[in-house]
UniProtKB/TrEMBL annotation:
This is AbrB family transcriptional regulator. It comes from Natranaeroarchaeum sulfidigenes. InterPro entries: SpoVT-AbrB_dom, SpoVT-AbrB_sf. Residues 57-91 are annotated as: Disordered. NCBIfam families: lp_hng_hel_AbrB. Residues 80-91 have a biased composition (Basic and acidic residues). Residues 1-44 form the SpoVT-AbrB domain. The lineage of its organism: Archaea, Methanobacteriati, Methanobacteriota, Stenosarchaea group, Halobacteria.
Length: 91
């Protein structure tokens, strides 16, 4: 068992940190789930990029896309951000 200190902090046992890949400086998400506190390490940025690339690839060929002039401004900004991210991933 671990204790919560006066500032609300807890220390995760070393074995648990090692199994979860939580090293000093790792960002974690803390949320309530079914009345319990869940601590989960944020995903590795490389995994996020790979997932985005896979999702972009699954959405179809670029030729299937409407010209940017024919889409809503919010969709245009989203598409531009995805394309920018894909280009940066190619570097």
């Amino acid at each position: 068992m671990v204790q919560v200190d006066a500032k609300g902090r807890i220390v995760l046992p070393k074995e648990l940190r090692e199994r979860l890949g939580i090293a000093p400086g790792t960002e974690v998400e803390v949320r309530e789930e079914d009345g319990k506190a869940v601590v989960e390490p944020e995903p590795d940025p490389e995994q996020v990029i790979e997932r985005m690339e896979r999702l972009v690839g699954e959405t179809g060929a670029e030729s299937d896309l409407k010209p940017l002039d024919d889409v809503a401004p919010s969709a245009r900004r989203h598409r531009e951000a995805v394309e920018r991210g894909a280009r940066e991933g190619d570097r």
